[in-house]
Amino acid sequence: MSREHVLHKVRTALARSTGQPIEEPPPVRLRVPVVDLEDRIKSFCERVEALAGKAHRATSDSDARAYVAGVLAGRSAVASNAPILRESGVAALDGVVTGITDRLELRSLCENAACGITAADYALADTGSLVMLASPQEARMISLLPPMHIAIVARDRLLTGLDELLSILPYPAEQTSSMVLITGPSRTADIEQILVRGVHGPGEIHVVVI
Amino acid sequence: MAIRVSLFVTCIVDQLFPKVGLAVVDVLERLGFQVDFPERQTCCGQPAFNSGYREESRQVARHFLDVFADADYIVVPSGSCTSMVSHHFADIFESEPENLERARRLAPKVFEFSRFLLEVAGVEDVGARLNEVVTYHDSCHALRELQIKDGPRRLLANVRGLQVREMDAADECCGFGGTFSVKFAEVSGGMARAKIDSILRTGASAVVSVDSSCLMQLQGALSRAGLPVRTMHLAEVLASR
Amino acid sequence: MSAVFDEKIHATLADTKLQLAIYTATGRLIEKRRKAITPDLCPDYQELRSHANDVKRHTIEHLDYYLEEFEAKVTAHGGTVVFCKDGEEVADFVLSLAKERRAQLIVKSKSMTTEEVDLNERLEHHQLEAVETDLGEYLIQLAHERPYHIVAPALHKTREQVADLLSAKLGVPREIIIEKQTMIARAVLREKFLAADIGISGANFLVADSGAVVLVENEGNARLTTSAPKIHIAIAGIEKLIPRAQDLAVFLKLLGRSATGQPLTVYTSFLSGPRRGGEIDGPDEFYVVLLDNGRTKVLADREKRESLYCIRCGACLNHCPVYRKIGGHSFPWVYSGPIGAILTPQFLGVNHEPGLPFASSLCGACAEVCPVKIDIPKILLELRSEVKKAEEREGSSRLERLAFRMWAWTMRHPRIYEMAGMAAASLAPSSDGRGWVKSLPSAMSPPPVRAWLSQRDLPPPPPKSFRQMWRER
After folding, report:
1. How close does chain A come to C400, measured CA to CA in Å?
2. Domains identified in chain A, total number
3. Among A161, A171, C110, C303, fewest CB within 10 Å belongs to which?
């Protein structure tokens, strides 16, 4: 609406002319520590639990399936179309609906499901975070609408932290319209600073490291 | 030959708390310094500067530069007055290159009292003795503009018979802030009372600080509340024998 | 200061329950931040601050370049950038889009920028329902109030007040348990998310090299606001830009820790356009509104331009002893605390509330905790000087100016200074040399003296000044 107007004011304020080149920005600051896989997994699981999430190290696909089935305890779930869910057999568990590609159908299922099951593209060990990129395989709503979220993460996707994530993925916008870092269950302390979980997003989180 | 130290006593000490000035002289002379007092000194200009009257503060600052032109060292029993000279004169003389240069050359010679003792005199123990339980208040300018925090505590730690108890919120503002204390009197009073609660929780019988303005604010509030806690400038503690 | 300011401050100080609420809440936030930046958890904290300051300085100094880069990237990913010079243009844009799309319901995630331009009020005028979805913002929307704090909008509300509010506005039975109050709001808002036509968010950061909007939150309402409706509009001040996605490594570390003591908030969203290439859900349309509304004015002032570095963490509010006493609603504009004290005069003019830059003891706690190292006290001092210059032009505050002129003259004349000191001392009531003065006859109490005495005692003048005693040695 006021593009020229605003840009002109900005340039005038800075005494810069149209198209004037810029000085070099300060170099990017990324510090990626070297942490071996075992320590990364341990740290990640500790952090998830410290945030009142649950972390489970699956020894095998069947172990992962057993854990998820135990958590679901007969309740309904929607699973994303991430390959790892199929390959591990989690998507085929009783009560789990998967393979949905229609937005409205998916939303309706998520509204009513007790649980959303997704993969995670990466996990961050130092903060206990899941990194999820929206894609044809991973819809946004599955990790957002149902009151419980279960994420299956492959151990080789466990990064040391945000710095490492941004080192290997400097331009997330080229991959997806939405990248979300999920660090624990939804919470608020807006009333008298008292902590309440599961305000809008899932109040219960389980991460299975496979 | 003794090192000559010029005392900038500050207007508040000069007019309201002269014993603090005497204590500074006492401590410095005992350490072998030759103290002189340029008698034409008055003020650093801070009240006007903080109130938005830059031109008026500039006039007073110029006078300061004249009075202390020949000083080798300037010692100041106040964190806020010290930072006024060493930090804010640069803001005041922004558009007066000659005075800006004078101010820049002067800045490294200006020392808050405790810093002078530690960094120039090189002492942490001045041989003082005071049997009392005290708590230390971090004056904002000293703490945040001059990074004075451990120094006074180290000096106090070496006073024989003195027990120093840390209060929670030692680094919270006492609420003086110059004209803030009268322009926003209610808030200022509230801040002082919050500080006094902290002080009382230590059980100390005195509060120590490097700034007389803070002490005036705190003592005023203590007195109003009818509390027996007294205030002492660091110099007074260090001059105690 | 204005009578309004004075009155609000007084009312807040007199409300002991409110005093306790403010003090406790800010105290908790202080402690949380402190715990998150200990040397073992965050050893490079000071370095991060310096780096953030450098990046912000660079970005602001080259803002036109980054605005254009951002716009190009957003466009390349299928979104649209809309530049708005003021709040009216923002409202016009939203309204015309809503009309075109026949939208009726808007959900909003927390955005101080939209509060700044009273967007909700403008939308309501045109029969558009715009619902705040952040719990605190939802509550204050129900109460028709302004946010109390940049990060914790309902900081001042007790559970009793929330219970009253919910039952009055929603017609539900009165519920005092906080968890249940939260669930009531959750149920109401869930329906709104899923029925909304448009989702409006703010932006914590705008990333130039990605055309991305970064949103930081704990509840999930920003994710829902920006993922459920078909249209997402992000509204942000032009100063929210950072150059590169990789710069988030520094800024996210600082924001969470400074605001709530969290290394990362629960959800960090990096949104760069409408859904694309087979993505199943997400908005079909993505707009980023870039707002001026006075920012270019601040930008033009070299000395105070750093005010625009602010990442809205709220740490300065939490640590400010004045905010902790007078609270957010004493401030005249949406931004409160130290950052509000420097932004308000720059956006609205020093005359809007001439007392505001003086409502500070210049303790510097704000500058000490600011993650991007804005020198707030320095800017307050500049603003004070501007207020006095304005007063001089207008011919107001004559008495005060005269007093300081006389003071300056006295201070340049040592002998006059000395005589003035002696005269003042002789006028004061004689005391035994130990008692502090509790009151003075009104003839001897000009307003500053009276103001001092309203809160504390005055020191008795000593028998001799220092210089007299020096001479007598």
Report:
1. 34
2. 1
3. C303
Looking at the predicted structure, is the pLDDT value of residue C431 above 80?
no
CB contact under 8 A, A201 and C220: yes
**CB neighbours (10 Å) of residue B87?**
16
Question: Which chains would you list as touching C if contact means 3+ CB atom pairs under 8 Å?
Answer: A, B
Chosen from C8, C361, C382, C415 to mutate, greatest number of chain B CBs within 10 A:
C361
A92 at the C interface (CB within 8 A)? Answer: no
CATH topology for the B124-238 domain: Rossmann fold (3.40.50)
pLDDT single digits (tens) C53-89? 999 999 999 999 999 999 999 999 999 999 999 999 9
Question: Is residue A15 in a domain?
Answer: no
Q: Say if C164 is an interface residue toward chain A (CB within 8 Å).
A: no
- The beta-carbon neighbor of C266 closest among A16, A23, A186 is A186
Name which of C50, C69, C73, C219 is nearest C133 in CA terms: C219
User: Of C427, C404, C453, whose CA–CA distance to B15 is shortest?
Assistant: C427
Q: Coil, strand or helix: which one is C154?
A: coil
Mean pLDDT of B38-61: 97
Q: A15 CB near a chain C CB, below 8 Å?
A: no
Instruction: State yes or no: pLDDT of C130 exceeds 80.
Output: yes
Of C281-290, C406-415, C456-465, the range with the lowest mean pLDDT is C456-465
Is residue A3 situated within a structural domain? Answer: no
Residue-number span of the structural domain to which A104 is assigned: 32-209
C376: Cα within 13 Å, side-chain hemisphere: 32
Mutation test of the interface with chain C: which of A107, A175, A188, A195, choosing the one with the most C Cβ atoms within 10 A? A188
Better-scored residue on pLDDT, C125 or C10: C10
- Residue pair A51/A185 in contact by the 8 Å Cβ criterion: yes
C264, C285, C301, C373: which to substitute to probe chain A, counting the most A Cβ within 10 Å?
C264
The rounded distance, in Å, linking the Cα atoms of C51 and C315 is: 18
The domain locations on chain B are 4-119, 124-238
The residues pairing with A71 across neighbouring beta strands, listed in sequence order, are: none
In the block, tokens 């198209």 appear at A19
- Does pLDDT of A62 surpass 90? yes
Q: Which residues of C touch A106 (CB under 8 A)?
A: 280-281
Task: Say which residue, C436 or A70, is predicted with more confidence.
Answer: A70
Interval C196-229: pLDDT, tens = 999 999 999 999 999 999 999 999 999 999 999 9
Instruction: List all chains that touch chain A, counting a touch as 3 or more CB pairs closer than 8 Å.
Output: C
CA distance B60 to B187: 29
Test A200 with C190 for CB contact under 8 angstroms.
yes
B135 has a pLDDT exceeding 60: yes
Within-domain flag for A16: no
The enclosing domain of A96 has a CATH number of 3.40.50.10420
Alpha helices in C77-158 (DSSP H): 87-100, 112-116, 119-125, 135-142
Confirm or reject contact between A133 and chain C (CB < 8 A).
Answer: no
Span B68-92, mean pLDDT?
Answer: 97
pLDDT in tens, A119-150: 999 999 999 999 999 999 999 999 999 999 99
Task: Establish whether domains B4-119 and B124-238 are of one fold.
Answer: yes
Find out whether C319 and C308 touch, Cβ atoms under 8 Å.
Answer: no
pTM of the complete model: 0.96
pLDDT of residue C430: 58
Domain contains A21: no
Ordered by where they begin, the domains of chain C are 44-293 (3.40.50.10420), 311-394 (no CATH), 398-471 (no CATH)
**Minimum Cα–Cα distance from C388: chain B residue:** B52
Dihedral sign, Cα of residue C460, residue C466, residue C472, residue C473: positive
Fold observed for domain B4-119: Rossmann fold (3.40.50)
Q: Residue C440: its pLDDT value, please?
A: 84
